[in-house]
């Protein structure tokens, strides 16, 4: 009876995974198809044309290693966008963690008046749709000379990211016992050593989760990047949107694979922090 | 006293002549050599609709390379979802008080209402278009060129290419001879082939659909001539109800009984390619050629045109008033009019899908003529007979008609 139930559970998990993976399979078929129209059940023509058009694979007659290298080093739009997305994501992730750390510590460890209101204000960017605040922000950014700059885009990405990072890290600190720090201090460790040896290892798993959130939110920003970047800072979501409007499914699918691949990779390596015994998992309940 | 007066008169006259002698090619530049010298080492920020990868790579390959090699200019092509985004950017910059050379946009691929918005607000740099050396190839005497949706261009934008509305059909499903050749015949075709036709929803994203409806006005009212010139409300109000009546009479026989309409040309191509409808619209002189080779329509797709009232228009490059690299922008606007490059944009192998920006008869050098001939010969069998298209060509009309038609179509056809 019990083993039967277990079997059913496992099948249910397989089914869930299958449903999640199905759209990805469709992406892959589309990305290598050519002139795939109804009523063809499977594409009649398979082709790398989408990848050639994206300038990720050289034209058919010169596919040597040197040509690949030359093509990629010639800095096609997609490589530029990929690098931009990655750098912005990394910078913003690190910045958001540093900014959130003190706030989360106070919110997680202390109780004080108006705490709920402060938390509400902090998460308000996730309630407001970006379009509601970005048009106004855009004018401010232009007059501050931040529009169209790399720094400006990083700065505006922090707006939707901060709530996630602060909330996640608050969860960690809600479960955190600062007495360990006092103990270390009485045993002669200085502030830096205490942070490095006691605080950091305790909050690290939760920090990874917060960093994941930060990176993924930054990775998928379209509107904020588009308006504040003034079209000058090309990132992958911008490229995906403009390609999707051209109505070439193969091209859009190929680009989407490039877009989701890094996130899948990151999730894969970070999965033990998300599913494992992370303090972030049950911290929020104590708020 | 008298001497002084004479001196002033002399000074004024000589100033006047010096102005004539060193006539500016564009505001701030006395000669083309000045422009070239100033442009060296600049980066030109080109804002253009980025939805066609064929056009994108054409610009990168055919303009980016010579700009770098011959003028030391770096091309920064910025793909945007719609030209309106660039217009809004210029408007925001104006609001934020960014003037002089401190803007972010050097060139906008533009025409119609977007051009008029910026020109009217005084947010364009110019006049520059007639000062470009290659301006001699442009058919400035043609109203289709010197009027942009009925508004005079006055040198504030320089042409790039042209497009003309016509249709695509699939030769595997239909015969060329059976296709309708005017709106009357199309009406019959729709009732004989229920569910097999639809048109693009008129609107900002579907200007091709608006164009499809404008042409009905021309046919029903008996000719295009009376529609040229400024907006005429009396004329519009007279014919609009008849147009809505015709469109409503089609509705039950349209794809999905006219409950939904494709929002843009890409959606329409998708319906056509997947066999849901039998016609799509094209704007390319190559007909179905560009979509056939990019794989968005079946390889057997061909083009056909009505014999009359097919709207064609030109599209242009404009320079915002606060463009940071005006010299490089001028070089770019001039470069795209080179006969060889114009032939290259029509040449099917290069994958660009728009037509001539210059009057091909104005080209006199042998190299240019040969390139133009070769491009015309290579248009291929996916294109309609160029003679039929040329005979059917009419210019687009005042921008107010577009707003009116879009709003009234919603009220009188979609919501009916």
Task: Characterize the structure shown.
The complex is a heterodimer of chains A (287) and B (416). Chain A is mainly alpha-helical. Chain A has one domain: MetI-like (MetI-like fold, Orthogonal Bundle). Chain A contains 13 helices and 2 strands; from the N terminus they run αββαααααααααααα. Chain A has a two-stranded antiparallel sheet. The longest helix of chain A has 33 residues, at 77-109. Chain A starts with a helix and ends with a helix. Chain B is of the alpha/beta class and 416 residues long. Chain B folds into 2 domains: 27-162 and 314-384, Periplasmic binding protein-like II (D-Maltodextrin-Binding Protein, domain 2); 166-312 and 390-414, 3-Layer(aba) Sandwich (D-Maltodextrin-Binding Protein, domain 2), CATH 3.40.190. In chain B, the strands form 3 sheets. In chain B, strands 1, 2, 3, 6, 10 and 11 form a 6-stranded mixed sheet that branches. Chain B has a 3-stranded antiparallel sheet with strand order 8-7-9. In chain B, strand 4 (147-148) and strand 5 form a beta hairpin. In chain B, helix 9 (233-250) runs parallel beside helix 16 and helix 13 (339-346) packs parallel to helix 14. Classes of the chains: A mainly alpha (287), B alpha/beta (416). The A-B interface holds A 34-35, 37-39, 47, 49, 53, 55, 77, 138-139, 142-143, 147-148, 226, 230-232, 234, 238-239, 241-243, 245-248, 250-251 and B 45, 47, 50-53, 56-57, 76, 78-81, 85-86, 89, 92-93, 95-98, 104, 264-267, 269-270, 273-276, 294-296, 298-299.
């Amino acid at each position: 009876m019990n083993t039967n139930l277990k079997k059913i559970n496992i099948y249910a998990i397989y089914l869930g995974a299958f449903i999640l993976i199905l759209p990805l399979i469709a992406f892959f078929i589309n990305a290598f198809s050519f002139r795939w129209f109804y009523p063809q059940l499977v594409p009649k023509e398979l082709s790398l044309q989408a990848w050639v058009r994206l300038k990720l694979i050289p034209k058919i007659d010169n596919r040597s290693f040197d040509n690949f290298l030359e093509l990629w080093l010639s800095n096609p739009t997609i490589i530029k966008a990929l690098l931009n997305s990655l750098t912005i994501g990394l910078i913003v992730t690190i910045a958001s963690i540093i900014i959130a750390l003190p706030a989360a510590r106070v919110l997680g460890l202390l109780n004080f008046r108006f705490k709920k209101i402060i938390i509400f204000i902090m998460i308000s960017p996730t309630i407001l749709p970006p379009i509601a605040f970005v048009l106004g922000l855009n004018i401010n950014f232009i007059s501050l000379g931040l529009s169209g700059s790399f720094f400006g885009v990083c700065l505006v990405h922090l707006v939707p990211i901060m709530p996630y990072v602060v909330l996640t890290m608050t969860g960690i600190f809600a479960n955190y016992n600062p007495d360990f720090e006092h103990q270390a201090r009485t045993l002669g460790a200085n502030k830096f050593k205490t942070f490095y040896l006691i605080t950091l290892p305790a909050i690290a798993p939760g920090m990874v989760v917060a960093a994941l959130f930060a990176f993924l939110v930054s990775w998928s920003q379209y509107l904020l990047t588009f308006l504040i970047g003034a079209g000058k800072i090309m990132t992958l979501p911008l490229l995906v949107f403009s390609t999707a409007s051209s109505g070439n499914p193969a091209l859009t699918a190929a680009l989407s694979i490039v877009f989701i691949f890094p996130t899948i990779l990151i999730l894969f390596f970070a999965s033990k922090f998300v599913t494992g015994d992370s303090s972030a998992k049950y911290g929020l309940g104590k708020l | 006293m008298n001497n002084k007066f004479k001196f002033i008169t002399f000074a004024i006259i000589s100033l006047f002549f010096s102005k004539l002698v060193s006539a500016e090619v564009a505001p701030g530049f006395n000669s083309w050599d000045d422009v070239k010298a100033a442009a060296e080492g600049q980066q030109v920020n080109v804002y253009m609709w980025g939805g066609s990868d064929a056009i994108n790579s054409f610009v990168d390959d055919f303009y980016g390379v010579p700009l770098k090699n011959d003028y030391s200019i770096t091309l920064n092509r910025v793909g945007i979802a719609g030209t309106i985004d660039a217009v809004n950017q210029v408007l925001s910059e104006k609001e934020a008080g960014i003037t002089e050379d401190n803007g972010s946009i050097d060139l906008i691929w533009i025409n119609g209402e977007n051009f008029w918005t910026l020109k009217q607000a005084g947010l364009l740099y110019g006049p520059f278009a007639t000062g470009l050396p290659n301006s001699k190839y442009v058919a400035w005497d043609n109203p289709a060129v010197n009027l942009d949706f009925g508004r005079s261009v006055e040198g504030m934008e320089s042409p790039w290419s042209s497009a003309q509305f016509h249709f695509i059909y699939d030769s595997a499903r239909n015969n060329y001879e059976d296709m309708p050749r005017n709106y009357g015949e199309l009406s019959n075709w729709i009732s004989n082939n229920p569910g097999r036709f639809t048109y693009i929803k008129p609107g900002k994203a579907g200007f091709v659909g608006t164009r499809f409806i404008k042409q009905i006005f021309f046919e029903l009212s008996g000719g295009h001539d009376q529609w040229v010139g400024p907006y005429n409300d009396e004329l519009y109000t007279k014919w609009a109800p008849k147009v809505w009546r015709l469109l409503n009479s089609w509705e039950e026989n349209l794809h999905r009984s006219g409950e939904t309409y494709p929002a843009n040309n890409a959606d329409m191509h998708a319906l056509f390619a997947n066999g849901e409808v039998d016609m799509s619209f094209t704007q390319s002189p190559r007909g179905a050629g560009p979509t056939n080779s990019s794989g968005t329509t079946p390889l057997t797709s061909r083009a056909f045109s009505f014999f009359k009232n097919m709207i064609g228009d030109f599209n242009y490059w404009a320079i915002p008033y606060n463009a940071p690299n005006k010299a490089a922008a001028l070089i770019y606007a001039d470069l795209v009019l080179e006969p060889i490059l114009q032939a290259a944009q029509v040449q099917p192998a290069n994958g660009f899908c728009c037509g001539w920006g210059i009057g091909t008869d104005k080209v006199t050098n042998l190299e240019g003529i040969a390139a133009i001939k070769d491009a015309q010969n290579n248009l291929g069998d996916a294109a309609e007979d160029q003679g039929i298209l040329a005979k059917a060509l009419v210019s687009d009309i005042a921008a107010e008609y577009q707003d009116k038609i879009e709003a009234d179509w919603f009220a009188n056809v979609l919501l009916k």
